[in-house]
Amino acid sequence: MKRTILVFCLSFILLIGISQGYEYQFKINDTLSNSGKTITLISITLDKILINISDEDKYLPLGVNSPKNLGESILFVRGIYYNETKSESYAMVDFCTKSEEVCNNLDDDCDGKIDDGVSRKCGSNTTLGICSQGVQKCINGEWGYCENEVHPQNEICNNLDDNCNGKIDEDISRSCGNSPLTGKCKNGIQKCVNASWTKCEGYVFPTAEECNNLDDNCNGVIDEDLTKKCGVSDKGICKLGKIECKGGAWQACIGEVNPEFEWCDGVDNDCDGKIDNDCKNKGIYLKLKEWFSGLFN
């Protein structure tokens, strides 16, 4: 909106263009016309003026920044001054035409306040989820900081759309199980559903070591110290052997002594826990025993 200052000095008028409305230096007995009305200044005091409006049969006092609605415009007293050189008082009055208040350091809506209540939204361009735009207030014709804006955040398990993409708690999971992360062991996964964590799934805990070329007990060593006995028996002449695990496979039996035919020799050859039972050479054995006995008697 455009303002023009008119300075009334005795019988001449000085016209100066400025930013908004019409502002005048108004002295006693001066008259001004605006919105089809004639305003006459009757008197001036320290804090107010007394005017007469042509179509109103009364005098109207106006204080500084007190508005008088004239229809198309509003009359304001912007200040009261005293010219010591001329020993006369005068008032600066303003005819303001209303418009929408904008951020320009002017009183556009003619309420005596500059940039009052002027604000705008700012910041985030989305209002999905927890996000919201902030507000900038106009201060002295300049936009202030963006206040109370809520930015997107990392999604957490809380049944809210923290990252403001229109989805709640999407793709949120966490490790669970507390397994040692060696060998075949691994932690499981929990998923977020309705702000709660599901049961831990997929975890692998240590187990007894097996001959499979894996670290089953998760101690960092594969198939360590794995052996097992082999053979038929450990009775009589028999002995059990040992099989070792190498490369995930059991090797050949080593060190075993297997059963033989039972001989009549005072030994359990067939490893059944009995000596010389059903031996194959009983007659020869008895004769040899008798013969050897005779040699030493």
SSE layout:
Blueprint: E1 3-9, E2 12-18, E3 21-26, E4 31-34, E5 37-44, E6 48-53, E7 59-63, E8 68-69, E9 74-83, E10 88-96, E11 119-122, E12 134-139, E13 142-143, E14 173-176, E15 188-193, E16 196-197, E17 227-230, E18 241-246, E19 249-250, H1 282-295
Parallel strand pairs: 1-3
Antiparallel strand pairs: 1-2, 3-10, 4-5, 5-6, 6-7, 8-9, 9-10, 11-12, 12-13, 14-15, 15-16, 17-18, 18-19
Describe the structure.
With 297 residues, this protein is mostly beta strands. It has a domain at 3-96. It is built from 1 helix and 19 strands. It has one helix at residues 282-295; strands at 3-9, 12-18, 21-26, 31-34, 37-44, 48-53, 59-63, 68-69, 74-83, 88-96, 119-122, 134-139, 142-143, 173-176, 188-193, 196-197, 227-230, 241-246, 249-250. The strands form 5 sheets. Strands 2-1-3-10-9-8 form a 6-stranded mixed β-sheet, with no helix packed on it.
Determine Rg (CA atoms, Å). 56 Å
What shape does the CA trace take?
rod-shaped
Q: Helix fraction?
A: under 10%
Distance between the first and last residues' Cα? 151 Å
Order of helices and strands: EEEEEEEEEEEEEEEEEEEH
Low-confidence stretches: 1-21
The secondary structure category is mainly beta
Strand content: 25-35%
Query: Helical stretch count?
Result: 1
Largest sheet: 6 strands, mixed
| Main sheet strand line-up | 2-1-3-10-9-8
Q: Work out the number of β strands.
A: 19
Mean pLDDT: 83
